[in-house]
Design brief:
It is a single chain. The protein has a 6-stranded parallel beta sheet, sandwiched between helices. A 4-stranded parallel beta sheet has the order 5-6-7-8, sandwiched between helices. Strands 1-2 form a two-stranded parallel ribbon. It has 15 helices and 14 strands. Helix 1 crosses helix 15, helix 2 runs parallel beside helix 3 and helix 8 runs parallel beside helix 13. Helices cover 41% and strands 16% of the residues.
C-alpha cells in the first residue's frame, strides 16, 4: 500500500489514507493518515482492525469529495467506507488482499470459514471492481460469483532488496561460518503461516549440514512459544527498510511454508535479494519460480514434498548458487512504477465508467483517492 500511495502522489494525484492506529511506527510515507479506532484481532493482539467510522467518512468526503475510493480491507472500517461511498455516489475499487476465511481455522473459528468466504464475496460485489494479484485467484473468485475482477500484480523494489546488501557482520552475529549457509523466514510469526513446517524443514536440512542457521524475521503470537521450544533458532523480531533488506541478503535460502497467501510479497523480496526460495506451488511462488531453475516448488499442502524440496538445496550447492542468480535475474523487471501505472489506470477507469461519478474540486491535476 505504501508503494501504491507513494506512486500515485508522484503522478500528481491527491491521496488520503484512513486506517486504524496500530500503536507502532510504520515505514510508509502516508503523510499524516487519518487514524481511526481499532481493536486487536482475536488471537492476534499485535494487529488491530478498524472500527466503523461512518460519521467521520461522510463529513470528510462531503467536504472534500474523492474521485474514487480504494478499499483494502473487508472489515468494519472497509464496510463503512463502502456504505458511505455508495450513498454519496463515489465509485469504489476494492482489493482482495487476505484469505481471511482460511485464517479462521487457525484461530478456533473454523466453523465460520464458509460464512466468512460468502461475506467476502458479497462485500466485493458491492464495489465496481475487485483487484487481485494473480490469475489463479481471479479464476477462483469468478467461479464463486465475484464479478468485475481486475488483475493488479505486485512489484518489488530491486534497489532496496538486492544481493549487494549482504552483510558479513550480520552473518558472523548469526554464527554462520565462512562458507556456511543461512536459511531465513520473513513474515508474521502466526499460526496461519505454517511455521512449524519451516522448522521441520530446517531440522531435516541440518542433518546434511550441521552448521546451517535458521533466522526468523517478524513477530506475532507464536514467537514466544516457538522461541522457547526452539532455542537453536535465531529470532530477530520485526525489521523494515534497509535493515530488513540486509537481513534478506545476508541469508542464502528462503523457507516459505504458508498455504494461506493471496500472493506473498516476501517471495519477490527474497528472490530480488538473491535467495533460493522453497515454497508451495501457488500464489507468487507458482507465478515466478521455475522449479529447480530459480527455486524449489512443492505440490500445494504436501508437507513431505516441501521438506524434500528444502533438503535438496543442501544436497546440491552448485545448483543452489545458480538458482540464487536466476531468482534475482527473474524479478529484476518487476519494478513498482509499472504496477503503479496499472493501478492508476484501473482507478481512472472506475471513475470514468461509473455513472454516479461527479466532478471533484480536488482533482484538477489528477485523481483524489
Amino acid at each position: 500500500m505504501s508503494q501504491l500511495v507513494r506512486g500515485l502522489r508522484a503522478r500528481g494525484h491527491l491521496v488520503s489514507v484512513v486506517r486504524p492506529d496500530q500503536h507502532l511506527q510504520c515505514g510508509s510515507d502516508e503523510s499524516l493518515p487519518t487514524l481511526v479506532r481499532g481493536l486487536p484481532l482475536p488471537g492476534y493482539k499485535g494487529l488491530r482492525f478498524g472500527l466503523p467510522c461512518t460519521r467521520l467518512l461522510r463529513q470528510s468526503w462531503k467536504r472534500n469529495r474523492p474521485d474514487v475510493i480504494y478499499v483494502a480491507t473487508e472489515g468494519p472500517l472497509g464496510w463503512s467506507a463502502v456504505r458511505i461511498a455508495r450513498c454519496l455516489g463515489i465509485p469504489i475499487v476494492s482489493g482482495f488482499h487476505t484469505n481471511y476465511h482460511y485464517y479462521s481455522q487457525h484461530y478456533r473459528l473454523g466453523w465460520l470459514q464458509d460464512l466468512i468466504f460468502k461475506y467476502l464475496c458479497w462485500f466485493h460485489n458491492q464495489t465496481e471492481r475487485t483487484l487481485v494479484p494473480s490469475v489463479e485467484l481471479a479464476s477462483r473468485l469468478k467461479s464463486v460469483g465475484v464479478a468485475n475482477i481486475g488483475l493488479l500484480e505486485r512489484g518489488v523494489d530491486g534497489k532496496l532488496f538486492s544481493p549487494e546488501r549482504r552483510s558479513d557482520e550480520l552473518r558472523r552475529k548469526w554464527g554462520v561460518r565462512e562458507n556456511g549457509l543461512a536459511a531465513i523466514y520473513v513474515g508474521r510469526v502466526a499460526r496461519e503461516k505454517n511455521l512449524e513446517l519451516a522448522i521441520d524443514a530446517y531440522h531435516a536440512m541440518k542433518q546434511l549440514d550441521e552448521s546451517l542457521k535458521f533466522v526468523i524475521v517478524g513477530d506475532g503470537p507464536l514467537r514466544e512459544p516457538l522461541q522457547r521450544s526452539n532455542p537453536d533458532l535465531i529470532f530477530l523480531g520485526t525489521h523494515t527498510g534497509d535493515a530488513l533488506a540486509a537481513r534478506y541478503a545476508s541469508a542464502d535460502i528462503f523457507i516459505f511454508p504458508s498455504i494461506t497467501e493471496t500472493f506473498g510479497n516476501v517471495t519477490l523480496e527474497a528472490m530480488a535479494s538473491g535467495l533460493a526460495v522453497t515454497a508451495y506451488d501457488y500464489a507468487a511462488a507458482g507465478m515466478h519460480i521455475k522449479h529447480r531453475q530459480s527455486g524449489m516448488l512443492a505440490p500445494y499442502d504436501n508437507p513431505k514434498a516441501f521438506v524434500d524440496s528444502a533438503v535438496s538445496l543442501i544436497r546440491e550447492p552448485t545448483a543452489l548458487l545458480a538458482m540464487r542468480r536466476r531468482a534475482r535475474e527473474h524479478v529484476s523487471s518487476f519494478d513498482w512504477p509499472r504496477i503503479v501505472d496499472r493501478f492508476e489506470m484501473l482507478l481512472m477507469s472506475a471513475r470514468s465508467s461509473s455513472r454516479k461519478a461527479s466532478p471533484s474540486s480536488m482533482a484538477e491535476q489528477g485523481l483524489a483517492v
